[in-house]
## 1
Amino acid sequence: MTIQILRYRSQNKTLPSLFRLSKNYTQEQVANNLNVNVQTVSRWECGTTLPDVLTLPVLARLYGVTVDDFYKRNSVAYNNYAQRLTAVYEKTRKPEDFIHCLLEYKKLMHGGVLSVEDKWNYAIIHQWMFEYCKNTAMEWYDTILKEGSDFDENSFYRACACRISFLFAVGKGEEAYECFLKAVEKFPDAWELYIHGGEVCGKLEKYDEAIQYFDRAGAIGTPFYDELYCKAMLYEKIGRDRDAYKLYQEIAEKLRKNGFDVEADMAEESAKRLDMKKK
């Protein structure tokens, strides 16, 4: 695209004509798109007249540029407006610019005109937003932990639990484990911490330790037998299907006894799945 535009510039073309030629449009095609005559398009490109304030944004979108680009010396036409917005977002990394990109790519998707380059750009803007969200989440978790627990102890230890889970999700398993150990020193009776800590230990293959933490959560008391679910899934992971089967049955019985029929059905389905696997 850039080489093509430079070639046109060497022929002393104006920006409107550069943008049109870089898209391989004829003046007739542009005129038809904008519902004007060819002579009008020609006058724009000769510099005799300019598009009016209502037409200029439409023309910019057609060429894959911004209105400002018509007034710049070194403008480069993009394949579409979404790619132009992607370049802006790459520079600013602001969430609002991500939203602008997202909406524009959605329009391309609905129109069925998403190119391979558009798909790559669509993926990369989500990657940039993921990095932003990851960093922002960590900053806020750290802010809560630095402020201390005196003002709101419940929110504080919940933030600890979420931070543990988040650290592991982004590939920082050992750091998540250390965070858990520090958190339970401060909040030894917070069952959520033991659930998260047990899950981290399970993924780090510290299976015996994981089971101990799940049992500790159960001893404190969980609302929906979370510790039993976690133990059952861990047993499945390490090949103790029979133990997992018994736990799912126990969960189903406890839930049904307390009136949670839907949840009980789900636990029974897990038990049946293991029973079928055994057969």
## 2
Amino acid sequence: MSEATVYQGQFGEFRIDKSDRLSVIIYRAGLMVAAVCFGIATFLAIKFPTDTTVLNAITFLYATFCIGLAVSLATIHIYLAPLHRLLQVFLGIGAVSSVVIGLQSSEPLALYVYNHPLTLFGVGFTFAALTGIYFKEGMCFNRLETKLLTPIVPALLLGHLFGVLPLVVEQTLLSIWAILFMVFAVRKLVQAIDPDIGDKSVFAYLKAQKKGNKLQST
């Protein structure tokens, strides 16, 4: 990582330093962990849908996936702080729901969620948070894979929730999701780091506005 670089932003000059770049590297590492875990879990779920040992392994992969996603959401650069917090809340709801279900059910988590679609009202928030990342990346960097993932993920989850998708369609969408997620994570590894940080002058401007609004309200 090079020394601090000065850029001209929308609201003035700003610097990108080593700590900024490190946060991007951590963000991308979290995405890669999540993508790898999701890809392996998808393969195992489709290949060995009735093997209890495999399904229990998927629970571990899901937990690691959530950790990777949490790391990414802690280090992602999003201009709108409320949106950033909302995605973190979504992940929290999904993670807590998963823990509660996992502790109460005698079945492996993946099998229980699959057989009880209403659990997606809790667990599904995990993937809503992930979809938020896809949407952000699609809007900021015009990424085809994340533009495709943004509708695919809710379509699959809602389709399963309402029982309107045949098994083969669900498996196909899940496979496409896993492949595109990995494509996204790999492409992030080779993308220039500084653009991922964004225009820090915008962050500073929004922060100053927030402080000004607080002062006016007191």
## 3
Amino acid sequence: MTETSSRTLCMIITHAQSFIKTNLKPIHAMKKNRASSAVLLAAIIAISGIYYLNSMALGSSAIVTTQMSDTTPTYAISTYSDRPVLAEFVSPTSSLVGKSIDTITVNLWKVGLPTGTVQVGIFGSDLSVKQLIGSIDASTIAKRYTQYTFSLPAPQTYQIQSGDRIGIEFTGGSSSDFVNIMSDQYNAFDGMNSYLTYYNNNTWHDVSGADLTMSLTLHTISTSPAITDTTPPTVSASPVSGTYTSTQSITLTASEPSTIYYTTDGSTPTTSSPVYSSPVSISTTTALKFFAKDTAGNIGTVVTASYTINLITDTTPPTVTASPVSGTYTSAQSVTLTASEPSTIYYTTDGSTPTTSSTNGPSLVSGISISTSTTLKYFAKDTAGNSGNVVSQSYTINISEFSYCSSYCNRK
């Protein structure tokens, strides 16, 4: 959050709290005007929401430092061209010396039809403006006692000095058209150390033991201190170090959002090493080394995971069985060849020895038609490249005359 937005939010919160306190009771008195009640209630809810968001969601709280607060109204003092400045004089022993402010709250109202600009701020003994806090058009001031607040634009503040005169200046108007400012004639804020003063007939007049009815405040935002991440990330490997009989796919996982660097050649990884993005394939005995670097720049320690890979080599050739087996049959046969493991089966039916160029098919091979006496030869080759022995099956087919006539004569 910027300083400007912090100051603005802080002031919104302060005014919201004041607004809610002032207007909660009138809500109950506005039963006859439901529209006004609804508008007021909506405003209170909205302002309360701003306060809640600031203090809860943003993890921040508004701090209003009150440097002076005199809220007792006693007498009104007029200011116009002949009495242009009404202020609080800050003596060298005043508790205000050295304190910073950004906001002044005073109570004003107009009499008649004053015109011109009322300036609110800090003035010098020569009537010069040392620091303008804010201003208002005299014609817009209410005709009854009203509180007005003026603030410096963020992030400006003013540090009060000895000899300052804090109040208002109005050089317009007349004795019949003027601006009143409320004063407290009985309860001086700082005793004789700061007191009411006004400029009239080319000289300053002090009113000891009296004050302007005025508040001087400083608005700041208190935020939780930033938490610095100094913890380096850790990385785990799955599966872990060990001896395996097959190729392993290693997944690396960091303990927090990080970039993982690794090597598989035994060297120590650096930020110039390969970046992990997908599982690492380990097919031979390997020392996998890795570490992680998190988004805060913390670098974890290098970890080594050792993998011993003892691959089991398949040297066993497949075997093939035939169904039905060799024999003498009185009808044509449909032979099925089945391998003992995933393989390709090669075969011949003309008595020749089969090769990998012979008729073939993946196990199982079915539907080999044997209608005459035939020598069926075959073998299989598995996925590891192992070839089995050639096997022969002899089929004698004797179709009798009776069987022939039965099947043929019945069609006559």
## 4
Amino acid sequence: MSTHRSKKSVQQLKRQHHVRQFFKSFGLLVLLVVIVGAVFAGIMWKKQATQAQLQQSRLQYEHKKATPGNDTTATNTNWSRTAMDQLKLGDLTKKGQGGARLTQLVTKYGEPAKTKKGSEKGHAIKTVTWTNIDSQQSNAKFTVSVVNGRIYRKQLEHYQLTKRATQISVTNYDNFTLQTTTYQKMTADFGKPDTFEESLIDGTDLIVGHYTTNIEGSDTASIRLAFSNDVLIGKSQVGVE
């Protein structure tokens, strides 16, 4: 009788052991499924996030490419007269706020031929000069002054316009009236000056234009005009007849 009970107890212990092993194995299986599911979910989330980032980068690139002035593929483009005239200036005393960025110009027109550091009105500045100019004059050059990475002055030298609608006579010159004649009127009637310098400082936009072509008079005839905020404030001439 005792032997029979012992065998029965052993069998019960074996069954209990098998049951525990089953639940233990089942628990491990469930845990494994949970872990695999979590890993798979993480992989899918990372894949979706990467795709979203790639899509955003592509859209940003296309937007930048389509935005004027952001063409990062153009290098060593020659400066045209139109590009020089349209180059926006910022005010020196406001650290060039609103002016064109030097980095964008370097991207489009290449590294300048010359760079020089200095100071003006207590601001650290630098001037950079390009010689890749659309001009018949091989020594033409375009210089900009920079504060805080932005342009506040531009200057074109040794440049000659090949066409001018109307020759400038001494009578025309005499009719250029201080505090009355405007730069817009002057350029509308006689075209742009051959060379110029323009700066924006303390809220004053100063343009000094130099006309050297299509002038009635001697071979070396020239006219110099200065405008402050579009209004003529000074003039001089040599050899105009």
